[in-house]
Design goal:
OB fold (Dihydrolipoamide Acetyltransferase, E2P); about 120 residues; globular; 1 helix; about 5% helix
Length: about 120
């Protein structure tokens, strides 16, 4: 097969997906466990990110930090958390507190029983 003529084209650079937020010194955090919480100013919400199209939040942490001095964190959300965020029209600049309230069990796609955390979302 012959190589196609490329004159007039500029070579596109591939994104380095592992460094998308490196300039922010963002740290990855887990969703809160039962009895734990995460609080921060919503800097960015990506509704469908990653391999499983999961909501992704970029937060400036405000728990134990001043509003403009907390570290920047990335957290995979869940469909249930994101439904509450969108239902309440929370957007960039809103401060959210996501709290793991209790555990529940459900049957996974593989038929096995799995545990998950229920969440409450607060905002100001």
């Amino acid at each position: 097969m012959a190589t196609q003529e490329k004159s007039g084209f500029e070579k596109a650079e591939s994104p380095d997906e592992s460094n998308d937020f490196e300039e922010d010194d963002a740290v990855w955090i887990e969703r809160p466990a039962e009895g734990d919480s995460v609080q921060g100013i919503l800097l960015e919400r990506t509704p469908e990110a990653g391999q499983f199209n999961t909501p992704l939040y970029k937060l400036r942490r405000t728990d134990d930090h001043d509003d403009d001095e907390g570290p920047i964190a990335l957290m995979w959300s869940s469909q249930s958390i994101d439904k509450v965020v969108t239902h309440n029209s929370l957007t960039t600049g809103d401060e959210v507190l996501i709290e793991g309230t209790d555990m529940y069990t459900f049957e996974g796609d593989d038929g096995e029983e799995q545990e998950a955390v229920n969440y409450e979302v607060y905002f100001k």
